[in-house]
Write a structure and sequence with these properties.
This protein is α+β, with helices and mostly antiparallel strands. It is 32% helix and 29% strand. Strand 18 and strand 19 form a beta hairpin. Helix 2 crosses helix 4 and helix 6 packs parallel to helix 7.
Length: 371
Amino acid sequence: MSDAIVTLRKGAGRTLKQGGPWIYDNEIESIVGSFEDGDIVIVHDFDGYPMGRGFINRNSKLTVRMMTRNRDTEINEDFIRMRVQNAWEYRKKVMDDISSCRVIFGEADFLPGIVVDKFADVLVVESLALGIDRFKLMIVDILKELMEKDGIHIRGVYERSDAKVREQEGMERRKGFIGEPFDTKVEIVENGVRYYVDVKDGQKTGFFLDQKYNRRAVAKLCKGARVLDCFTHTGSFALNAGIAGAEHVTGVDASELGVAQARENAALNGLEDRVEFICEDVFDLLPRLEKLNAGLEEIADRHHVATAQIPVAWAIAKGTLPIIGVTKVYQVEDAVKAAAVELTEEELETLEKLGDEAQLNVIRYWEKEMK
């Protein structure tokens, strides 16, 4: 804990004052007092009004991440325990199944920079900010204790803090066991679908738990349909469609590891006869099919439901974004222009609100199915 004071520039901190958790480097007027990066500091507005406490890191453009809006609150074990317990109690209250779920979701749980996912009896931790990294082991121990009280025994914890953003925080990437080693291939059940999750080598923490209810929603559209699942990863949307009674499902992903896991998951659910996976780059596959006289309209004709799940900022950076319309699949250079043409006003508003890490999910019935 430091008594250093970070003072905002006049007119700065508008997002913070609206409830946001971050202070950017260009919003800071001065820093007075001694501290080390990662320490908790006091935040003042330009006129000295106290804004709360957060941890500082001058290596990051997100220089201060707020932990509390009360200047007098001590950030200690009791405080961390309160935050972790609130997060766990909230999951138990709002989720119909906590066997596998995102237990701590960073800023949403007022613990900025850390994610903890629960896969059956395994926890996976992703710590991406220097300040919260100091509390990482404490958070894990408190979570295990709280779950044990609820009759849930955690057999192992794995850290997946191997994202490149850690280097921007002045930290090394880290990946490995927290505590005793264990089998990192974990079987989970979600929405009645069984999966093997590779918490060691899978993407991010191993599985996109935040898409649980989107997968359930897609399943309702798929009975008797032919489904195309682009960017399928380990096949979660495709498998939900298959379990729901789709006539046939094709999943496409560029990752050989992801497709291999998807095929294994299909076998785990007895869906090999109706759910197939192709290892291809979607951005290469669709244009090639068009040139081979299997045009995009034909692709649309052959599939009643299509799903796409991609990072919006990544797609724009690539110069292309697939927009799945009513009867066609469009690949265009100007994502916003295409969205304005092909999406409803409500969907466009949603697109505009998405941040860099948000996922774009565009799901359509084809027009001939709607008639």
